[in-house]
Structures are given as structure tokens and as C-alpha cells.
Amino acid sequence: MPTTNPRSRCAAAVAVAALAAALALGACEREEPDLSGPVAEEATPEIPGGADPAAAAVIEEWSSTLSRGDVAGAARLFAIPSVAENGPALIQIRDAADARLFNASLPCGARLVEATQDGDLVVATFELSERPGGACGSGAGETAKTAFRIEGGRILEWRRVATEEAPVPGDPV
């Protein structure tokens, strides 16, 4: 019957422990968040305007998350791929990093005050506010509108819409 060297058993145990630790660390250092499946599933109070309640819930979740300064959380509500248009530039959101950059570029927080249905789009009216990490400045208290296309609980399109008070930056006057 073969005998086992205690040093070999110890070395094997250390190797197994090191492998388990490496696998655990690899799982913890995951760069891209899991963007599969719907995310805004909690009950949300009805938003005035008559828009699809599920779409309005996603928009409400996005605006409240960004208003708390949680850029990464707001970015997780974007579909990959998706598009955003804030003024003359159309931004292609190809990955989670693009979604974070777009959301970080928005200087204001926003409270959803109305959501109306316009075909496949929901036009959301927001009251702008300061937010952690942003610099809303004189925009705080103003109104802004954005048209959203929501699919599968995610934002597929985010397009700024001109209001009577504030035209979209870059639009001709």
C-alpha cells in the first residue's frame, strides 16, 4: 500500500486553496455588470400622463437613481446597445462603460412629473435638480423633456426633446 508524504498532502491542499481563492477573486473583479433581463420591477406610483405604466416605472427608476448620484445604477437601466441624443450628437451606447459615461455627462438630477405615450415612445417631463456628482446650476427648477423607447425593462433610446422654456442645445433658434 503506497504511503502519502505529509508534505505532498499539504502542498496539494495549498494549491487547491489558491485555486479556489483565484476563482473567487475573478468573480469579484468582474468589470461588466449583468445587463440581462428587466430591472425596474418594483411597484411605482402611477405617473400622470397616461403612458405605459411599465415604461414609466423604468423612467422613474432611472431618474431617481441618477438623482441620488448613482451613475452606475442609472447606466444599468440602459440596453446594450442603445442610443442617446442630447442635442445635436447621437451617442451610440455599445457597452456598460458608454452607458456610464453618458449618464455621468448629465449635470442634473430629475424628478419625473409626467409621462405621455407617443406611439412607441414615452415622452417624459422632468423637473431638474442638483444631484451628487453633477453641476446643474441655473438649470435646477427648470423643466426638461426626454423621449424614451423602453424594451424589456431597459432604455433602448433616450432623446432630449425641446420644451417651450428650453430648446435642445445645438438646435437653431
In short:
Helices cover 31% and strands 28% of the residues. With 173 residues, it is an alpha+beta fold.
Polypeptide structure, described:
With 173 residues, the chain is α+β, with helices and mostly antiparallel strands. The chain has a domain at 53-161: Nuclear Transport Factor 2, Chain: A (Roll), CATH 3.10.450.50. It is built from 4 helices and 6 strands; from the N terminus they run αααββαββββ. The protein has helices at residues 6-28, 53-67, 71-75, 96-105, and strands at residues 78-85, 90-93, 109-118, 121-129, 143-151, 154-161. Strands 2-1-6-5-4-3 form a 6-stranded mixed beta sheet, covered by helices on one side. A hairpin with a 4-residue loop joins β1 (78-85) and β2. The protein is globular and about 30 Å long. Residues 6-43 have low confidence and may be disordered.
Write the layout of secondary structure elements.
Layout: H1 6-28, H2 53-67, H3 71-75, E1 78-85, E2 90-93, H4 96-105, E3 109-118, E4 121-129, E5 143-151, E6 154-161
Parallel strand pairs: 1-6
Antiparallel strand pairs: 1-2, 3-4, 4-5, 5-6
